[in-house]
Amino acid sequence: MTDVRIGKSRVYASDLGLGTNAVGGHNLFPNLKDEQGKAVVRAALDNGITLLDTAFAYGNGRSEELIGEVLQEPAYDRSRVILATKAAHDPAKDGSFNNSPEFLTQSVEDALQRLQTSYLDIFYIHFPDKNTPKDEAVKALHALKEAGKIRAIGISNFSLDQVKEANRDGYVDVVEDHYNLIHREAEVELLPYLKENRISFVPYFPLASGLLTGKYTKGDVFDSSDPRSSKPDFQGNRFKQIVERVDALKPMAKEYNITVAQLILAWYMKNPFIDVVIPGAKRPEQVEANAQSVNVRLSEADYTTIDKRFKEE
Ligand code: NAP
Fold first, then answer.
1. Is 3-213+259-298 CATH 3.20.20.100?
2. Which atom of ligand 1 is nearest to the CA of 259?
3. Residue ranges per structural domain of the chain
4. What is the reported pTM?
5. Each residue of 100-142: pLDDT tens digit?
6. Whose CA is nearest to atom 34 of ligand 1?
7. 174: part of which helix (H) or strand (E)?
8. Which residues' Cβ are closer than 6 Å to ligand 1?
């Protein structure tokens, strides 16, 4: 793993992290087991991954609690782990977004309790709310940074204008947003702005919820109890077209003696606009396989081929 600096902060994280919405995220995925989630976290730490990306919204705090429990185990050292969490969903307001300084300050305290730690390495505002000026919300996080409760300031799901407003004082260290080979809108304006302003970028859904791993075939259908059935990428012609493009990478993956998932993760790690890639996982074996992608040395020519293949109309 290579360590990357998060924005202008003193946080250095592995360039491959772990997304943990399937660790305790019982509100997001059916049939998750807490023990399996903890095994996923252990697999990440055992394979050199230092950044764990969680949120209150993943199981209403359950993901944070399970991570906190793993970090209490003798095998692990809190100081070697980069804990990133997020909040905005206000349980007192039916889960609607709240970015008020009071709410964010209390959310950090609550997350510290659940994670059984005295500081968070990265704290993100998970979603913008309607009322709070973005720079006011970030100022509250700056105060928490000065108090030593958080080490880096993040925002997530903000439009470019909202990012600019949030960063009025230059306090934002990292942005987390939806981006992957099949959702590339951020490339037009957001990613250049972040680079110019020394703000790190962490894309979410890097594997498009598993669709970019190469494990699907064009004939697959998802029944209504499956969360994938509500995602447009998993339906109709769009699904078939994506599967075709992913399948077309299989010969290249074979040349490197790796899987398509590893090839695609290596593409993100070579991308100069991306700082940390955070694939999620339901099983420890998936984490172990994904961790191998850091050893892939993707050539410039293959990087460009993948880039172009997913840009074609
Ligand atoms: P993802 O990383 O695109 O896909 C992860 C899923 O792909 C896994 O749960 C697993 O699902 C499958 N998978 C992973 N590795 C695999 C492998 N080697 N082989 C085959 N299948 C594999 O999606 P995500 O986990 O939803 O998103 C990543 C992370 O981003 C989340 O965990 C979360 O931390 C973060 N996130 C943040 C926001 C935000 O608003 N800031 C929003 C969404 C996500 P199956 O086994 O079920 O196929």
1. yes
2. 18
3. 3-213+259-298
4. 0.98
5. 999 999 999 999 999 999 999 999 999 999 999 999 999 999 9
6. 19
7. strand 174-178
8. 19-22, 53, 126, 156-157, 176, 204-210, 213, 215, 261, 278-282, 286, 289-290
